[in-house]
Amino acid sequence: MVRPAGSGRAGGETTKQRGPREGAATRPASRGARAERLAPYVLVAPAVLIIVLLRLWPLVLGVNFSFTGDGELNGTPVGLSNYLELAADPLFHTSLRNVGLLVLLLPVAVAIPGLLATFIYLRVPGHRVYRSVYFFPAVLSPVIVGAIFNLMLGFDGPLNAALGAIGVGPVDWLGDPGISMFTVVGVHVWATFGMALVVFLAGFSTLDTSLLDAARVDGASLRQVIWHVIIPSLTRTIQFVFVTTMIGMLTSMFGLLFVMTSGGPEGSTYLPEYYIWHQQGQMNRPALASAASTVLFVVMLVVGLLQITLLRRTGRQD
Description:
Blueprint: H1 2-65, H2 81-87, H3 90-121, H4 127-135, H5 142-152, H6 158-165, H7 180-204, H8 209-217, H9 222-233, H10 235-251, H11 254-260, H12 272-282, H13 286-317
């Protein structure tokens, strides 16, 4: 009976000796788990800091500055005076109407690179050459693009000469208020759709080829393949291209507008971006320009959220 008792005490002592070792072993494990949980935040922190310092903080300062005055009232709070002035400015109304025109033309600006990317993905004859040619305009400066199309679209330019050869009268592409905005938007789409084309091609790399093979076996036409297979599979890519294309139209057309029309004729090609530059650089009214910038930011935010919401609903219905 003594041996079992002794052996039991020895076992108890052994158990007590193992306890501290196990506790010491769990400490590094808990530290490692804590470090693992903190690692994503540490990696994201520099990017968040850059966004806050270079994006959000200047945005807050700009919004605050939009409630101050210009000229003699520089730095003096004026409440909503700048926004009320924008609401009464016909030129700003024109720029907002042109934003509505851009929204209406946006599906066309997205469909063009989408269809071209589809043809390249399906390996139509010469698809390698087309890929290089289509992307080439994206590397050109807007100033160069504007200068080239000023020559081509001039009243006595080669395009009107070609139209005259087939019996069509000359068109004032850049001087007619009714068509000048369409002309500039068309040039912008031509100059920038190469980037959207690359995004679509990247999206095609994630496409399940077995779906295309099954559609072909079932005898689906090209239109049916695009509508029922490709578009539902690239919903997220299409959402991204829609939003980035809209942002580009609202914030990256200044160079073309400045070179091709300078906001004319009769202010018909004004966009909020060009209006902001005019108020800041020509009229020396930075507070009013800040108010217009704030309105532009809100417009971009609302349009972007509406686009994402509509595209998500469409994707769910499909």
